[in-house]
Every structure is written in structure tokens, then in C-alpha cells.
């Protein structure tokens, strides 16, 4: 626990968009993840699709990238910012999950962890949407920040993989 | 597994927005959830906030409601639709989690499960954003559909709570 | 005062998007207004512009129409809806004001007064923006609902013009 | 009157987004206000709500903050920009009004008065929406710029409070 | 020429969103196209991409589908509407062009030709964006309506393919 | 052909938003065009409108300017950026066409050609929308980049006007 107050509330508890006008412009990177747990048969279907043309994963990647750019509109107290890089990678994990890993980057005065987390969440929701006709019971799990660089709070790296389960 | 094809892909594997023009207009309801796992001290801080003024939970509820209305813009192959009810409830669960439960409803030709799941995810992301200065290690878990009514596929109710862990 | 509760709060005071699923589909119309008070010289400049080419008023009209369509995105608890008519009229009033009158219409389950009020407000803000380099002291006044038809609450017509001052 | 032309029109009267590429990057602040005039009984109901949980004011504050971020999308000739601070305060005024005061800030090449005015207007519209079931006759008044710092035109402060009535 | 007035202007020439409240609800379909003319080497590169993984065409298809849903926001006087089907197909044409064909459909009171044309245009722009690093001289051509069904004006089919050159 | 790879795909062919974090901040300008080919009678009607008040061209200009600002949202892999100037000019060409020329400008790390092309396309689509009731056969042609300054790739100027036919 790095601090002892909610920065998005003023002293009377009201929501505010905090002042970052004078924060240092540094290069900031955040890496986040999400997992979509599904039936093994569902994963097999996606992987079959994958080789020849497979718009399933492409659609989810693009949805994640676009969502990163809309984070300021989705999360009420996020600052608008100009991302200079976004990537969304999706890989199978075991026989019953897809793991999404996102990276966001910019040179600016605020961190980009919300952008990376939003990209991961929306890519996961898109996978759910693409596959829900065959597997309604899929679960999105382990949406968390893996790493964060830049800014006053320094380098953060998630230590305990178990934590995220 | 209720079906054996990805409805969002055509026969050559290309993404499409499926034709719902002639589907029956019925009343459709979906209930979804998300959990935000946090340090007990973080939950305690939110609960202290809660009584006097506490914009933390209000901000997350509103973000969830607004996100439900933008689902068609976030999830590429979702149909635009006119939600007639959205609720977002957030309750503590044990001493280290907040549980979000969302409900979406409309009278139309497509289900609203993506809207309920999107509302839950964005409410969870907003809680993360509001609290990240004090607890960067929070994890969003168990984002899943709990119930779905209306439409050709009938009533769905998640049976096994363990599944969603 | 037509009612004794805030419909957008549930019984515990939490924001919600109220259920309109079962409300009657009727034809609904709302008329709203806004005034922009300015220096007489500013109004004269706009009127000079007006005759030959004058994008000032056209820009404000279009901004108002577009804002009506985005009301569900701007006002957190508004329902998404499909407007079937929007008009924005702007006329000089005396020698120091422009008066905006908007009309919104649809056939649906919710009223359109927020759409008409939002169109009037954004048209007024756009006029401010277009003219602020010459008159920073302009004031937007008297943004109010003039008339409302359709729905359970019946016909509303603002009786007392003074009220709106 | 600080200037004698409409900067948003070119020499033939056509709308344009003016060139700010070479303007100085300075710290810019704008403060704006709006008033919502209502029945005393309506204000009393909001204030009763306020103490225990009261999402009315929180919803309006959040709507105002989010609207500030969308100003470039609402007002056709506004430049996109990256606000570094937004606050929305809402206080009772007398027994029949709520007064909204907004502040926007950034370090950039254009002023932020439209952002502050848009935040105030949308917060006011949201209050109207939250309370319209009990008081349809509410009026939004006195939407104006109170103060502006930064940029070539220097410090502006509204002198005559009466003006804004 | 099917009519002798601009429906989007009122009798004094001012822009308006026309009243479709009382128009018949019929099933409406529109088919549109766009061509992207490029260097043969560029087309060859896209086709090489296509087989193994090829996000180029998938990205353009998704961008077109999403743009169709935003037409009401892009084209000022378009009505908001709820598309029930959107498809975007992209095929090579000769050795130096990609041809995009889009189809939009709904059951409603307004035609969907603007949605089909917008989908085609944005898919074409996305192809340009994906390939501009290798071929800046690409040209988007022949964006036109091919067919339109439903509504008072009946069935329209483009007769003369030359016309669209 | 200035390069031999698609920058928007990673080495395995997956869509990504490329890293521009460390690119030089330079002043960037792009000029693009589009033509709308129509019946001579349609052009004559627009020109009649033009003199007295004529919202046709004003609406298209504004739609183009606003679309430039939304390019990042329409084109999936475009970076968000802060345009500092946008102009949209529309002129008759011969007796059967309107030619749109757009200019976008900023000081930043990425080019603005997609913004200029998007502005031209959406202005053209808006003209189509305004006039479609009188001339459904209009065609949008010759959407292309005319000039580009700034950035590593230097000055580009379209040499051969014929190319764009």
C-alpha cells in the first residue's frame, strides 16, 4: 500500500479529476492482463479458426486497442491522454483459457495502467461476445496490472503470480 | 454448449454483424457480475467513505450504467440497442472484496448479456481507478453471466457458483 | 410538483436507470429554449454575417442537432433513444440576445425533454464559442422546458414566461 | 470587446478550426458557473438526500467532469485538448437554487473556457434530469465565464456579478 | 432525379433533422461500394498477408462495421437508428484494386444508405491507413450506392456501372 | 513505394498501434481531397441555396472538421492526436461536381494524412446525405492525399493529377 488517501476524492469526499498539470513528463509504460476461461472445446474451435483466416482473435485485438484509446471516456476520472503505443496479445493457456496481455505507452504526466487494464477487459469481453453462442459460461478472470514504469511512484512489478488468481 | 458455430463469423471465417432483423421482439433481461479483490485496508477505507459522502461507489455505479449504453461501440460486432433499464449494485463481500451485480433489460431482438457484462467490467475498472493510489495490486475476478431471459435460447441460470471462481 | 420522489434514485438513494420497458409507446414531443445575452455590437456582427454566408448560426444549429442525439451519452441516467425529428431555430431577441428554440420528437417509451434541453444548451455554448473572441462576457440564460406532450404525465406547457427569467 | 472579428470564420465567412500550432504553450485556467433555479421543496429534497448517500450531486459532478473531456466533440470548432484538472462544485444558494462552479486547467496552446462552460452546463442539465419528475419548471441560468488565465489575452475576471443575471 | 427539394433544409434553407415519426416501419436494405486503387505490389503484399494471419482485411472489415453504427454521429442530419445487420466484404479486383461491398439492414422508418456508404468509406480509409507506409498514392474511388430496398421510394438499383467511374 | 512492410502489423501479422513515443515532434501538415460527382441540376440547386443562407455546404464543412477530430476513433490503428488546425473547403468543379479540399495540421510525432482524408470523406458523405433525396446516383471519387509535410519521410506532393482519376 503506497499511499493513504484516495486521490480522486477531494477533502470532502467529492469526486474530482486530479491536477496533473505540473507533474513531470516522463515515458510511461503499463502492462496488464486478463484471462478468459472457457470449455476446452471452445478453445479448440477458436484455434481451428485461427490458422486459415480467423477473425476471432483479430476482432478482440482491435477492440482492445480501440478501447485503450477510449479509457478517458469510460472511466470518469481518467485524464484524456495521447497513447503512443498499444499492443494486445492473445495466447492460449492450457487447454481451457485464452490469456490477453496488453501494453500501453506514452510520454506524459499520468500513468497508463487504466488504459492497459481497459484494453485487456474489452478484448476479453469481445472474445466472450464472439464465442458466447457456443459457450455462455465463460468467465473473465485475473484482470490485473503486471508492470508499470515511469512517474513518481517508480517501477512496479507484480511479484506473486498467485495473487492474481 | 448450446450451438456449434461462431455466429459472428460467416462461412469463410470473416467477422460480420449477424442479421437479427427477423428475430422475435421479446423482453430480454441479463444479470452479470464482477468482483474486485483488494487489501482489507482498502475495503475499510471505501466503507469509511461510504457513509458521509462517498463518491467512490457512486462514481463506479454511474460508470457502469454509462458503459452499458456504449456496449455497441466497444464490442465490434454487438448490435446497437435501446436499453430500457440498467442497474449496478456494489456490495462488500467478506473483508477483501467488492462484488458488482448488474442488470440490463430491453424489449428487442437481441440479448443484453454483453451490456450487463460490460457494465460490470467498467464499474470494476472504475473502482480500480478510484483506489489504485492506495492498492495497485487489486484484481478483477469472476466476470460472468449469472442469468439471461428472453429470446430463442430461453432461460439461462448459472448453476455452479464454483465455476466462476 | 407532480410527484414526490426522485425517480433516478432507488430506495437506498443510489443512482439507477429507471425501467421503462413496459411504458406505453406514444408520440412524444418536447420544446425547450435558451437565450444568449450579448453586447449589441456582437449581435450586430452576427446579423451582418448572416445574410451573405454566415456559418455562425448554421454551426450552432448543427451542434444543437448533434447534441440532441448524444444526450444519452452526456446525461448519465438518460435512456438511449431514437429521435425521429430535431429542429433548432435561432432568432434575435431585442438588440442584445439570440433566442434558441429546439424541438425533439419520437415515438417511444420515454420523454424527450432532456434531448430538447441539451440541444438548446449546446447550441448556446456553440454561439458562445463562435463569438467569444469579440465578447467574452456573454451569458447563457433561461434554459428551460417550454412544452411537453405524450406519456403518462400528459401535456405540460410553461405558463409564466417570467418564471424563466 | 477585445477584438473585432470572429476567429472561427475565415475571410469569406466559412467555419474553420483556427490554427493554434504556433501559439505559446502556457498554463491555462478557466472558471465558469451555472445556476439551477428550482422550487424550494425540490432543493430541500436534494439536501435531505445529500447527507446519507445522495447520488444526485455525485451524478451531476461526474457528468460535468466527463462533459469537459468531450467539449471538442460537442462544440464543432473547439480544438481537442488534454485537460490536466477538472473540478465541479455544487452548492445550494438561497433556498431555491443550486450553483455550480467548474474549473478546468491545462498546459497548452488554447484556452479552456469552453470546457469549463460545458462542464457547468452539463452538470446543470444532469441536475434537471435527476429532479425533473418532481419539478419540471426548473430553469438553468447565468451560465457564464468567471475567470480565465493564461494565453495572449491575459487575465480575465468577471467584474459585475449583476451582469450575469 | 426523384424529387425537387433538399429534405434536410427547411423552407428558409436551414439545416434540420427531418420528421420521420410517422413514416412506415418497413424492412430496409442498402448495398454500397468503394474501391481502393493501389500499386500492384501493394495488393500482392496484402494477398500474401491474407492467407496465414492477415489482420489487414479483418481490421478494415471491423472498422467498416463499427463506422456503420456511428453514422448518426458522423453525418449531422442522419437519424439515430438500430441496424440489425451489417456486412463488409473486401475482394481484390484486377491486379491493382480492392473492392469493398457493404450491406446494411434494419426494420425502421428511415433508409440505411448512409450507413452502407459510411461503412464502405471507413473500410477504405482503414485499408489506406494499413498500407500507407508502402503506398502513399492509393486512391479511394467509386464510393456509391448500388441498391436500396424498402421505404416509400421503392427499389433502387444502380443501372450503369460506368456511371460510378 | 517508400518502404517494404506494413507498419501496422507485427512480425506475426497481428494488428498493433505502432510505437511513436520516440519519434521527433515536428510540425506536420497534410492536404487531401475528395470529389462528389452529381447531376448538373443538383449542383445548380446547391449553388442557388448557397447565396442566401445555404446550410448545405456549411453542414458538410462542419461534418468534415468534426470527423477529422474523431479519426483516432474511426480508424482502428490511428493514434489519438491533438489537431491544431483543420480547414475544409468546398468548391464547384465544372458543372457536375463539388471538390472538397481539406488541410490538417499539428505539432506532434505522427502524420495527419488520415485526419485530412477522413475529413474529406465525411464531408463528401454529408454532401451525399444532404442531396440524396434529389440525386441518389452521386459518386464520391478521387479521395486521395495531395501533400504531406513533416516527419521522417519528408515532403510528399502528388505529382500526377491523372493518377487520382
From TrEMBL, chains A, B, C, D, E, F:
Highest taxon, organism lineage: Bacteria
Any one of the GO BP annotations: Mo-molybdopterin cofactor biosynthetic process
Query: Any keyword Lyase?
Result: yes
Tell me where in this chain the Molybdopterin cofactor biosynthesis C (MoaC) domain is found.
Answer: 17-151
Q: What is its EC number?
A: 4.6.1.17
Q: Which UniProt keywords apply?
A: Lyase, Molybdenum cofactor biosynthesis
Q: In which pathway does it act?
A: Cofactor biosynthesis; molybdopterin biosynthesis
- Any one Pfam family here would be MoaC
In terms of SUPFAM superfamilies, this protein maps to: Molybdenum cofactor biosynthesis protein C, MoaC
Record-annotated active site: 129
GO: which molecular function terms?
A: cyclic pyranopterin monophosphate synthase activity
The EC class name is lyase
| KW Amino-acid biosynthesis (keyword) present | no
What this protein catalyses is: (8S)-3',8-cyclo-7,8-dihydroguanosine 5'-triphosphate = cyclic pyranopterin phosphate + diphosphate
Family membership, please give it.
Belongs to the MoaC family.
Describe the task this protein carries out. Answer: Catalyzes the conversion of (8S)-3',8-cyclo-7,8-dihydroguanosine 5'-triphosphate to cyclic pyranopterin monophosphate (cPMP).
- What is the protein's quaternary organization? Homohexamer; trimer of dimers.
This protein's name: Cyclic pyranopterin monophosphate synthase
The source organism is Alcanivorax profundi
Gene coding for it: moaC
Amino acid at each position: 500500500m503506497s499511499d493513504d488517501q484516495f486521490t480522486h476524492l477531494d477533502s470532502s469526499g467529492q469526486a474530482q479529476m486530479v491536477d496533473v498539470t505540473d507533474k513531470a513528463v516522463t515515458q510511461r509504460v503499463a502492462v496488464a492482463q486478463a484471462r478468459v476461461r472457457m470449455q476446452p472445446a471452445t478453445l479448440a474451435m477458436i484455434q481451428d479458426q485461427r490458422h486459415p483466416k480467423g477473425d476471432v482473435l483479430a476482432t478482440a485485438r482491435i477492440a482492445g486497442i480501440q478501447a485503450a484509446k477510449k479509457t478517458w471516456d469510460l472511466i470518469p476520472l481518467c485524464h484524456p491522454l495521447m497513447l503512443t503505443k498499444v499492443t494486445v496479445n492473445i495466447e492460449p493457456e492450457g487447454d481451457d483459457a485464452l490469456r490477453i496481455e496488453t501494453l500501453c505507452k506514452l510520454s506524459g504526466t499520468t500513468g497508463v495502467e487504466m488504459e492497459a487494464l481497459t484494453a485487456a477487459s474489452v478484448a476479453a469481453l469481445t472474445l466472450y461476445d464472439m464465442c458466447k453462442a457456443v459457450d455462455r459460461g465463460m468467465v473473465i478472470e485475473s484482470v490485473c496490472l503486471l508492470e508499470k514504469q515511469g512517474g513518481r511512484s517508480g517501477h512496479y512489478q507484480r511479484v506473486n503470480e498467485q495473487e492474481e488468481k
